[in-house]
Amino acid sequence: AQSVTQPDIHITVSEGASLELRCNYSYGATPYLFWYVQSPGQGLQLLLKYFSGDTLVQGIKGFEAEFKRSQSSFNLRKPSVHWSDAAEYFCAVSNQAGTALIFGKGTTLSVSS
Amino acid sequence: DTGVSQDPRHKITKRGQNVTFRCDPISEHNRLYWYRQTLGQGPEFLTYFQNEAQLEKSRLLSDRFSAERPKGSFSTLEIQRTEQGDSAMYLCASSFGSPNTEAFFGQGTRLTVV
Known about the structure:
Shape of chain A: globular
Largest sheet of chain A: 6 strands, mixed
Helix content of chain B: under 10%
Structural class of chain A: mainly beta
Strand content of chain B: over 45%
Number of strands of chain B: 11
Oligomer: heterodimer
Number of strands of chain A: 12
Strand content of chain A: over 45%
Number of helices of chain B: 0
Shape of chain B: globular
């Protein structure tokens, strides 16, 4: 069965520092992968997605993610974090039918000044 | 386009009562999803509609849960005989077109069962 693991529950990064959030997935075929962000009181917002093609995917708000099949990973990165990036981040994989998302438990990002 | 709208935003109910939540998807979105999110967890899939047809249900959706999407527009999620374990955020999402297209999420309905 498909699954997603986000090993880091909570990460604190200094404003202006780089960020990498880890995501590992379990999937038998070529996965459809997503990163969502959830701010307090807000709905989940899609940051980026990977379906096929270039393994480095650019998203909104300056985020990018790299798909590495050999490591079953889809890590999210940002070169310089802003205080407004503090939120909860979820990695997700689509089920085989494309009818549901399977989410990881999330990583809470705190940004220190 | 006002996005996915959910009502109410918060609901407190006594154990054993029935509750109903409403979701208004983005207009013309043919796909609608319900998820449940508990504290410290990611959202968990509950059920999926394509137009008015409920095509998939998670085993999480016990007999006390029922969802409808009449006329393929808004959807309702009803929980009968609520239990404390039903306390969670219930999220609705919608998308258009083929599978794996971007799903847009509402802000959710937070249910507290006391």
